Structure to design on (388 residues):
């Protein structure tokens, strides 16, 4: 009897067990499906995030490339084109460049749209940004507004741009003086202050030198470097300095970075190109200093671009002759001349917030190539959504 009862109860439990197992199986399948779906969604989200940052990296790589003045000049050759896929990490990206609102790249304020598509595991994201040319003057079209071009790309009217003019001296413009000299405030409003060393010298490679007096610096001796760096207090006393640049067919620049430089002799510049001088602390030319130009046959005159770093000083004395540009919009002081002596001659332009004229300063019209004087590059000015 007992065995029959147990067997009967066992037989009644089988359908219930089967039902429970079925319910558990359905729940298990449902839970697995939910988990699988979540894993797929999480995986897709991870790939989407990775693709977004890949696309953003593409935009930033392009922006960094065209931030360089030399590359910015060639941006028009990339417009309307899409790059080949660039592999990075677990995915790749492609980049397309186009003109924003059909505004030409020769404009003084061009806009270029960078559209970058990142792809990771079949998931793609698009990031867009607008690039605009930096506000720092660069080509003749922009510099003409600041440096008063006299109708030709290679001709500027000498001028002195300042915010605070001190001293008992006076400025005399020779040749064809500008009808109206741009003020420092107008210059800053149009182009913004610039510590020139940051832009001009940040990627340059230098060879170290201990002295400059009696030296001849040749572009051909640099062996892949851009110029020379002289630290500490250095004097060019009696023997002068000679700088040999390029040829008419291949003009080249010489970069010279100095801390404290005192010049009591001539700096002779030969060939075709420019001596680009960065003054980190002070330049003292109050003495026998003058620039002597010996251009290559058939080439325009070489000249000097003196970039005076923030809080540095630049001084020219009576009888000094300087050919080129003194560019120190954030310099501590640009100091010219001395009372009662022969004038300081500037053939070119001086741009400086604080300018002191102690005696007579003669500013003359001077012909030189003003194209590409100060680096221009493109900067990201606006990030755009994918739907813009």
């Amino acid at each position: 009897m007992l065995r029959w009862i147990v067997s009967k109860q066992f037989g009644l439990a089988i359908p219930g067990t089967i039902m429970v197992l079925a319910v558990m199986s359905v729940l298990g399948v449902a839970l697995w499906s939910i988990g699988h779906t979540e894993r797929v969604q999480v995986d897709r989200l991870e790939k989407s995030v990775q693709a977004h940052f890949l696309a953003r990296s593409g935009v930033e790589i392009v922006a960094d490339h065209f931030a360089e003045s030399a590359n910015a000049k060639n941006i028009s050759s990339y417009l309307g084109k899409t790059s080949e896929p660039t592999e990075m990490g677990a995915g790749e990206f492609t980049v397309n460049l186009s003109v924003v609102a059909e505004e030409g790249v020769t404009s003084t304020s061009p806009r270029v749209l960078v559209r970058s598509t990142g792809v990771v595991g079949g998931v793609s994201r698009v990031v867009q940004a607008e690039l605009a040319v930096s506000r720092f003057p660069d080509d003749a079209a922009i510099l003409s507004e600041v440096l008063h071009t006299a109708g030709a790309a290679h001709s500027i009217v000498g001028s002195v741009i300042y915010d605070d003019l001190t001293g008992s001296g006076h400025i005399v413009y020779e040749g064809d003086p500008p009808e109206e000299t741009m003020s420092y405030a107008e210059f800053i409003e149009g182009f913004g202050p610039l510590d020139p060393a940051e832009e001009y010298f940040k990627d340059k490679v230098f060879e170290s030198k201990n002295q400059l007096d009696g030296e001849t610096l040749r572009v051909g001796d640099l062996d892949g470097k851009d110029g020379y760096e002289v630290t500490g207090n250095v004097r060019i006393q009696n023997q002068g300095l000679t700088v040999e640049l390029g040829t008419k067919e291949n003009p080249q620049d010489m970069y010279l970075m100095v801390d404290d430089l005192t010049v009591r002799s001539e700096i002779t510049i030969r060939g075709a190109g420019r001596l680009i001088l960065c003054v980190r602390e002070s330049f003292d030319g109050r003495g026998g200093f003058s620039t002597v130009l010996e251009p290559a046959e058939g080439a325009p005159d070489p000249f000097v671009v003196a970039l005076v770093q923030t809080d540095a000083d630049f001084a020219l004395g009576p009888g000094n002759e300087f050919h080129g540009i003194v560019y120190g919009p954030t310099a501590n002081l640009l100091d010219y001349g001395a009372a009662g002596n022969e004038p300081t001659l500037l053939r070119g332009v001086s741009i400086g917030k604080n300018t002191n004229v102690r005696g007579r300063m003669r500013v003359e019209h001077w012909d030189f190539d003003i194209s590409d004087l100060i680096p221009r590059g493109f900067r990201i000015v606006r990030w755009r959504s994918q739907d813009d």
